[in-house]
Amino acid sequence: MAMETPAEVYCCRRLKRFVLSFKAEHARVPNIGDKLSSFC
């Protein structure tokens, strides 16, 4: 596993939090949250 800089780790946490809220808002759109979360 590659080493992540603190900025990348922070960005990834923000992205994951965004994905969770995005999934909640777009629950009827299948797999879109999974596609977003695959970036991390």
TrEMBL record:
Lineage: superkingdom: Bacteria
The name on file for this protein is Uncharacterized protein
